[in-house]
Amino acid sequence: MDKMIDKLRKTILLCSVLIFVGFSAYAQKVKVYPAPKEIELSTFFKVSVASQNVPVYKTKIPPSTPIPRLNPNRGDFGLASVASFDMNDAVTVSVESPEEVKSVKILPSSYGIKPVFKGNTVTFELNHPGHVTVEINGEWHESLHILANPFEKNIPDPKDPNVIYFGPGVHEVSQLTISDNQTIYLAGGAYVRCVLPEQEDEIEIRGHVRKKPTFILEGKNVAIKGRGIIDQSSIPKKVRRYTILAHKAQDVTIEGVTIFDPSHWTIPIQSCDDVHVDNIKIFGWRGNADGVDITSSRDLLVENCFMRTFDDAVVVKSFGGYGEVVNNVHTRKCVVWNELAHALSIGAEVHENISNVVFEDCDVIHDKGRETALRVYHCDHAVISDVTFDNIRIEEARRLISCWIGKTRWTETEERGHIKNVTFKNITATSAPIDPTLTGFQDGPDWKPYIIKDHASMELVGYDADHIVEDVVFDNVVLDGKKVEAKNVTANEFVKNVKFK
């Protein structure tokens, strides 16, 4: 009898261990961070992952009607829903919609996700971290964004004196500057509201006095990272304020955080070396709410990001007065939704030479604006060379490709510049649907209107015989299912040596 009881105890113990291990392994597949109770969440969608409920935030986005003006009515906006979690294994995601689901589109299409829907519920599998947009019953505007992050690595110690730690909950920050060996960390569940300081707090940037950015990274070995949210919506509409400025810094890490409603450029990187921007998520709707602006810097990698921006998403520039060239800039594995300007681009301001720039393995899921999805846009006097756009998938675009030299409202120099050695390779794109009510603007100082064509336009435009666009390669560029040929690209007489492969 004692032996039977002992055996039964061992069996129960073994089952308990197995159950515990099973639950632990299951729990470690996903991390969900509770939302602070003070934050009003979206009530439109309900999201769960691996049977855990995920908070759904809401944030402003541009209006649904395209606005082909330089200064849009900033009072118009929509609301997007945003759910975020961490994963380290394949998971099942469930979305409950307020209406019966009749159709579902999950972008980027290149992820190959096949949703299953019945009644009001959509389910699908995510096999790896990545950021997807769920569009139900054709509603593309106020859609659901699901941000699936990898598990964090190298989480800093909150007791480290060099770590400025924001734990779960709501925090207010007016201005914070860090320098050598310091890190700003936003834990999952942290929600940082950005506010203006009580007294004027300004900084001189490129000869202009501006409100100090909310976060400034200076010096060597500096970082801002985590899984928290930075919200700029408390900044008044008329205030132009950067969110995160990396300025004259070296060995910089900007990783993991989500940014709502930036009031100006979200992440400008100016006069920096060795910068890694990884897994940043940006939702902007105001004018000049760019994503990542790389200026007068070298050795940068931007990867694994999601950007829904009103203005440029990832853009490379070089300002005057710095005397610094831009070299070795790499953007990869990003998902971009651009509403007005450019998805992946160089320019407009180019005062010092820019070379060795690569955009690769990115998805542009929407590009409905007046500008061009992939662009080298030169309004000043320097040389832009050795630029590659490779393996880019564009779900829709009104203007697809442009290399352009000329004068615009952004021009600051008398002399014009030069563009050479630009490759467009393995590009697949679909033209955006025609909107007969929409006109855009031609490039130039007067912003003359143009009519949207029935296919995404491509152009090569030099300025004069001494300021040309040359050595451009179209290698397996496919638009609307057809390989692009010379007849599909508009070029003026100041363009030389264009090849189609």
Automatic annotation (TrEMBL):
Pfam families assigned: Glyco_hydro_28
UniProt keywords, alphabetically: Carbohydrate metabolism, Glycoprotein, Glycosidase, Hydrolase, Polysaccharide degradation, Repeat
Gene Ontology MF annotations: polygalacturonase activity
GO biological process, one term: polysaccharide catabolic process
Gene3D superfamilies given in the database record: Single-stranded right-handed beta-helix, Pectin lyase-like
Keyword field contains Hydrolase: yes
Family according to the record: Belongs to the glycosyl hydrolase 28 family.
Protein purpose: Pectinolytic enzyme involved in the degradation of xylogalacturonan (xga), a galacturonan backbone heavily substituted with xylose, and which is one important component of the hairy regions of pectin. Activity requires a galacturonic acid backbone substituted with xylose.
The protein, known as: Endo-polygalacturonase
